[in-house]
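Quick look at the format.
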Amino acid sequence: MAKLFERKSTSLTLSEFYDNYQLKKYRFDVSYQRKSGVWSEDKKSFLIDSILKNYPMPAIFLRPCVNTDTGKTIYDVVDGKQRLEAIVDFIENRIALTTYFAEDDFIDDANMKTANEIAGLTFNEIKNLNSDFPDYIKQFWTYSLNVEYLYEQNEELVATVFDRLNRNGEPLTYQELRNAKYNDSILLKTIKALVKDDFWNDKLARLKSVRMEDVEFISELFFIILEDKVLDSSQKVLDELYNKYQDDEQNIKRGEEEFRNVIKVLSGLKLDFNSNKRLCWTTHLYTMFSFAWTLMKKNIKPETAERAVKKFYEEYFSKKTSYEGYLKDYKDASSSRTRSETQRKKRLSALLLYCGINMDSSK
């Protein structure tokens, strides 16, 4: 008879999983697993977003290990460690639900109010909205994980499962491909230097620098200056711009000087990025950078707009806000296709007009 890898498929609710977790029935630190903390906070929050909407996720692979003396079973986490840790982080209030939970075509009008109320909240904050568990809390606890139990006793063979599941790894991102192609270009060297500006300390923490997400984002900002306009950031557009400016020393030098001046203006707005981490979402960072760039072009001092900008974002992130006028325009333009030229221009226009600045005029 042919030798086959012994496994069994079943399901496990998050409630059952967390009960077992509290009983220390899972071993996350098996030798072939990746270290903890690989996932960014954004990615963890997005997983919770998916769970609360009952979207499926890939199976979790566990290996039961029975202690023959005590009869106690411990489960090695063969694959799915990052997902399970994200779930625990949410339950234990170390991460919050996405702030854009309601900004999704999946949410219909009947559920919009509740979805808006829980967006950006931690697990405890959601539970404390009223005396009864909201439907979303029930949905979370009853969400069903697909589980594959692997009964192979040879640990080396079990490690091959992890290898087979992850053999291809994550493919190179577009920015990693650009890095390989333009690594020696004046453009990429300049952008990498701009990423290291002290202003960006902590603000880009949500981006995975190991996958060059921070370099790609600063590229998007840099091209605002080089092209003198807000741009679409599709990968095709970025590829074209990298090719266009790769060794254009004169424009790159001019752009670098302007970029650093924009940072001075943005710093002059004195926004509190530490207290409100949502300001560090790239959607808002891009808007604020393009706002500061507009102020610089119009010779408007940042202190002139400081109070209005702070008020705008205070209202925008407040749970008590009824979104109307420019706030609604900004919110609508933040709900989908956030990197498109059209949506970016709408957000910038909404912020400028809220602050009493005409986007199209020269003064």
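Next, a different chain entirely:
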Amino acid sequence: MKEHFKILIIGGGNAGLSVASQLISKKSNLNIGIIEPSQKHYYQPAWTLVGAGIYDINKTVRNEKNYIPKNSTWIIDAVTEFMPSENKVLCKSGKEISYDYLVVSPGIQLDWDKIKSLKETLGKNNVSSNYLFEFAPKTWGFIQNFKGGTDVFTNPPTPIKCGGAPHKIMYLACDYWKTKGILDKCDVHYVSGGAGIFGVPEYAETLKEVLKKFEIITHFNSNVISINGDTKKIVYETQATDETIKQNLSTLDAYCYTIAPHDPNAETKKVSLKFDLCHAVPPQSAPDFVKKSPLADSNSPYGFVEVDKYTLQHSRFPNVFALGDCTNAPCSKTGAAIRKQAPVVVANILSVLKQQKPTASYDGYSACPIPTQYGKLMLAEFDYDNKPKMTFPFDQAKPRWTMWKLKTKILPWLYWNKILKGTV
């Protein structure tokens, strides 16, 4: 069975639904198909709050069908192969679907297997991760019941979705333990593939003070290769005594979370660290079906879709656009980035439909709401050049109660009621 759509969208997450909704609002008679296999839709930015005990995990999930735009077709299937030279995709069901224009937005893949023993110990032995729906509540259970010891929070040496999440939960955990009166019994370590806590100096200074306040020991440029819950041991790779990691990455790959460059002449060593509690974040990459496709950037070790970073049009296939976490655009992979990318993709698709040149441009804007303690949050906003782009008429590098309310109350409401519907 064959199907054809004027515009075919791969992925029914934030990016795919936002684009579909905005396209239909501007041109209601477009023939749009959305390929998305999941029956559930998740508001993942709240999972850090779940892990900190202040948000109900059940409020982060709703039925996908309720957010599929009217006048579009939901194809409950999964893409297994892109054939851009033939303007079609192959689905898991065996169905071939053709298109005039393609929007690629399937999100990012969590590569749990790249950290030895991690999958086997998740949710047990005081090892958890807020990157999965089922384990975010366990994070809170482990933090709440902790009596003291060595705490390790990890961050991989790859681009990840919500690059601040690995240390957001760390600050909240430390603040909780401080309130509980046991922080002085906690030896807190941050093991990160980044070269520093944040790539935008104005925001980094604030976070450095938070690290000092909680006496957190940082291990930058470090690649976690094993987390064993039974032996309570984490192993990570570094180079020489300054812990510069051996990796085939450049400082452009993690965007505002700058990854240390690979030094081929430096000696690599492995370091073991015992822990009593561990919050782990897996390495991430493009989904495998993207990675192996003609759409992938051959220069990206993660297989991200190759796009012009301004127009978000594919570099080699002009009827293909991509946005969200799956692209090689050098911006942070956040919902805030998608909110700015979606109108650009929509405007440029409408231009090419008229046989005009795409002119809408995305400047790399992203935002990262970083809670530094319960009740206070720093809203970091920046662009491709890692320059602050502050929305509000005050210094956003200073954590504020108002920004905490934005994160915990306003943004979830906006997501379900406005963003997915393409009205903001």
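Residues 243-254 have pLDDT under 50 and may be disordered.

See the schema section for token definitions.
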